Amino acid sequence: MDSWTAVVSESSGTSIDRLSKLIDFGNPPDFYEFVCNQWVRRQGGEAGPWDLLMDGQIILRAVGHPTVLNLKQAVTLTQFALQADTLFDTKLLRRLLAHRLWPEEVPADEVMRTLEVLETLEEPHRLSMTLLKFSKFPDRKVQSKVAKILGRCVESYDVMEDLFQNPDARVRANLLEGLGRREGIEPFLSIIERATKDQNTRVSSIALALRARHGHTGATALIRMRSNSKMNDIRLSAEFAQKIAAGECTSRDPETGEILNTKDLAALASNVNPVGVVDAQSAVAAPVEEVNGEAKAHPDEQP
């Protein structure tokens, strides 16, 4: 009931009236299962209920609301929605700004959920201008997550330089990690080189990893030396950097605590195959159990 209340509370009277003909608001079905079933029906040619959920922005609100869906469910519905509306990701981000005073009326938890979803998408480039606004959001975790996404898609050296001036080491580290997820980093080698001398071990280790991945033998040797350090933070940062040097850029699944590599991020909605045919049973599977393990060396998780 709480899930339904959260997503329909801002809907128009017309949308709520139409929705009440599909479900019993006194005893509503599981929200995620209901939406997945409507997608399956749409794939079979029955578009009406799915279109209602899209046009009434019910799916849009659900994906961006962390108490309604877990991350894997939010990503799955986003993948469905993008097949029906290629601008769904843009609308998802702009929804955060609609009819709200910036930044005090923009909930940090909704921003984080939206960014977590956007991080899994392969093409965040068209969102970069709007994401830049969130790089100034007064929450370190939000700035850090934005930096990782922008590192993948910012083309302007001046913008990248400005982002790297952030005083928070976690933001700088994530920016470099995002940069490492693109094929060509040559335009930003001067920033990376300067980052190898950063006073923060995490930042300098990731910068060394990027240099090592592009054939700098000295950087490879330094990372190897750090990975044998008796100092815990230096060793863990170096171990994380070695994954980046090997092309295994990682992230932590907020729902499970599991470490995800780049391929895992792209496969969060793996129940949608390349041609868009849905495995309905997989789509409505229960959320995975939480795992107690922590990514101690990951820049998202340390101050």
Provide key terms for this protein.
two-stranded antiparallel sheet, disordered C terminus, mainly alpha, 2 strands, 56% helix, 303 residues
What would you say this structure looks like, in words?
- There is one protein chain.
- By secondary structure, the chain is mostly helical.
- It is built from 18 helices and 2 strands.
- It has a two-stranded antiparallel ribbon with strand order 1-2.
- Helix 6 packs across helix 8, helix 8 packs parallel to helix 10 and helix 13 (189-195) packs across helix 14 (201-213).
- The radius of gyration is 21 Å and the shape is elongated.
If strands are numbered along the chain, what order do they take across the biggest sheet?
1-2
Spans where pLDDT lies below 50 across 5 or more residues:
253-259, 269-278, 284-303
> What is the CA-atom radius of gyration, in angstroms?
21 Å
Apparent shape: elongated
**Series of secondary-structure elements, N-terminal to C-terminal:** HHHHHHHHHHHHHHHHEEHH
Number of helices: 18
Number of E-type strands: 2
Short summary:
The protein is mainly alpha-helical and 303 residues long. The chain contains 18 helices and two strands. The chain has a two-stranded antiparallel ribbon with strand order 1-2.
Secondary-structure blueprint:
Layout: H1 2-8, H2 13-20, H3 31-43, H4 48-55, H5 58-63, H6 71-84, H7 88-95, H8 108-119, H9 128-134, H10 140-153, H11 157-164, H12 169-179, H13 189-195, H14 201-213, H15 217-227, H16 232-245, E1 250-252, E2 259-261, H17 262-266, H18 280-283
Antiparallel strand pairs: 1-2
Helix pairs in contact: 3-4, 6-8, 8-10, 9-10, 10-12, 12-14, 13-14, 14-15, 14-16, 15-16
